[in-house]
Amino acid sequence: MPRRDAEELRAAREVSYQRQLTYKRQDGSYSAFGERDSSGSMWLTAFVLKSFAQSRGFIFIDPLELSAAKDWIIQHQKKDGSFPAMGRILNKDIQGGNHGKIALTAYVSAALLETGVTSEEEKKCCFKSQRIFGNPHVFSK
Question: Where are the transmembrane segments (predicted)?
């Protein structure tokens, strides 16, 4: 790829990253309407977290943005290990045709793991989510 094309692609990624941050709420979650929504969306926050994690190899992603989203997700985990379907989803395609507690918990857990589980709180969250799947060794490798 010519150097100029690579620079344009990098600039476009930076713009996309900055645009995505406009949907961030003060509590670290993401919503299609930002602060105008009554709450952040669990699906969208996990989607953004996963997207940012995948983008780190191409552009600078502020680790504090990742931490804020992870903290919000962890704070909302239920006692049974699942994650609540909070907030609105305008584009149902991000759910991949899957709905329900197990699908959401699997998606959120994958997003957390993709960013790298670094704190004890994050490890506990991932292990706790295993209860939903009925397999105590899902995340042990």
Answer: none
The strand ranges marked E within 32-129 are none
The C-alpha atoms of residue 100 and residue 43 are separated, in whole angstroms, by 11
| Enclosing H/E stretch for 113 | helix 101-115
CB 83 within 8 A of CB 47: no
Is residue 132 classed as helix, strand or coil in its secondary structure? helix
Beta-carbon contacts of residue 104 (< 8 Å; ≥ 6 apart): 42, 43, 46, 82, 83, 85, 98
Structure-token pair, residue 117: 């589980």
- The candidate with the shortest Cα–Cα distance to 52, out of 80, 86, 94, 21, is 21
pLDDT in tens, the chain (141 residues): 677 788 898 899 999 999 999 999 999 999 988 888 889 999 999 999 999 999 999 999 999 999 999 999 999 999 999 999 898 765 555 545 556 788 899 999 999 999 998 899 999 998 899 888 776 554 554
